[in-house]
């Protein structure tokens, strides 16, 4: 379940205004909300690696609901989905064609419809150097049962920046992959009232995509940045201390 953006904004304003410490407007809040969501999202990957090492060393609590590694992985579920790739002739590669912004590629499935029998093959993803070396050997050359892929990039018109592409050998008939997508930027939508006040509108708002367990973390991190905007070191210090407590508690 997502974190309601109006709940976060009203809580942040309440804390800031409780002792007349200052105010952040909706535009400032939306910028901070985007920054904080990206920070928390990015933290799942190094945290997952660290927790997985403890898991491999049998140092992890595997009791139901108390396995920290599984809890961390659970937070990524909203961003995981199977996405389609389409063939780009000019680059002889497969281009991400799903909805959203691609962040990472996991398990790749190459489908060979014209072979007999048909193969839905798990595709090994390797570096360009490994791809070249493996493909040169007659014993290890890729087949429809054991295809091989590497990631490259190219600028495809009308885009102006490079896109992620998959080079797959042998060429399949279609490709899909388990992907992690970037979170959508949160937005606190509003109308301006007759007195110049900002009134929340759910129809033009976008909630945080992070799990509800991150609500306290989101608020404290936004407060930390808000302290910079309103030039109040007390807010920064308090919010930073609270954020560190949350982080230590999650990893301990």
General description of the model:
The chain is an alpha+beta fold and 252 residues long. The chain has two domains: 2-74 and 185-205 and 214-226; 80-181, no CATH class. It is 38% helix and 26% strand. The chain is built from six helices and eleven strands. The chain has helices at 5-18, 26-56, 68-74, 128-136, 215-229, 233-251; strands spanning 2-3, 80-88, 93-96, 102-112, 119-125, 148-154, 163-169, 174-181, 190-192, 198-200, 208-211. The strands form three sheets. The protein has a seven-stranded mixed beta barrel with strand order 2-3-7-6-5-4-8. Strand 2 (80-88) and strand 3 (93-96) form a beta hairpin. Helix 5 (215-229) runs antiparallel to helix 6 (233-251). The protein is elongated, with a radius of gyration of 23 Å. The two termini are 24 Å apart.
Percent strand equals 25-35%
> Which consecutive residue ranges, at least 5 long each, have pLDDT under 50?
none
Rg on CA atoms, Å: 23 Å
Tell me the series of helices and strands, N- to C-terminal: EHHHEEEEHEEEEEEHH
Helix content: 25-40%
What secondary-structure arrangement, pairings included, does this model have?
Layout: E1 2-3, H1 5-18, H2 26-56, H3 68-74, E2 80-88, E3 93-96, E4 102-112, E5 119-125, H4 128-136, E6 148-154, E7 163-169, E8 174-181, E9 190-192, E10 198-200, E11 208-211, H5 215-229, H6 233-251
Parallel strand pairs: 5-6
Antiparallel strand pairs: 1-11, 2-3, 2-8, 3-7, 4-5, 4-8, 6-7, 9-10
Task: Write a short abstract of this structure.
The chain is an alpha+beta fold. The protein has six helices and eleven strands.
């Amino acid at each position: 379940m997502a974190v309601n953006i109006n709940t976060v904004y009203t809580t942040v304003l309440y804390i800031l205004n409780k002792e007349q410490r200052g105010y952040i407007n909706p535009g400032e809040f939306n910028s901070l909300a985007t920054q904080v969501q990206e920070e928390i999202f990015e933290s799942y990957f190094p945290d997952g690696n660290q927790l997985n090492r403890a898991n491999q060393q049998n140092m992890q609590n595997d009791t139901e609901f108390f396995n920290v590694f599984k809890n961390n992985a659970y937070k990524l579920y909203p961003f995981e989905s199977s996405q389609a790739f389409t063939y780009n002739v000019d680059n002889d590669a497969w281009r991400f064609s799903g909805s959203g912004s691609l962040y990472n590629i996991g398990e790749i499935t190459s489908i060979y419809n014209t072979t007999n029998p048909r193969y839905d093959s798990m595709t090994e993803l390797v570096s360009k150097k490994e791809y070249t070396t493996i493909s040169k050997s007659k014993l290890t050359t890729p087949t429809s049962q054991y295809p091989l892929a590497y990631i490259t990039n190219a600028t495809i018109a009308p885009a102006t920046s490079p896109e992620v592409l998959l080079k797959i050998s042998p060429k399949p008939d279609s490709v899909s992959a388990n992907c992690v997508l970037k979170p959508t930027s949160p937005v606190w939508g509003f109308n301006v009232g007759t007195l110049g006040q900002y009134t929340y509108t759910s129809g033009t708002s976008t909630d945080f995509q992070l799990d509800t367990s991150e609500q306290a973390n989101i608020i404290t991190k936004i407060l930390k940045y808000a302290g910079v905007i309103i030039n109040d070191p007390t807010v920064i210090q308090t919010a930073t201390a609270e954020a560190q407590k949350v982080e230590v508690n999650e990893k301990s």
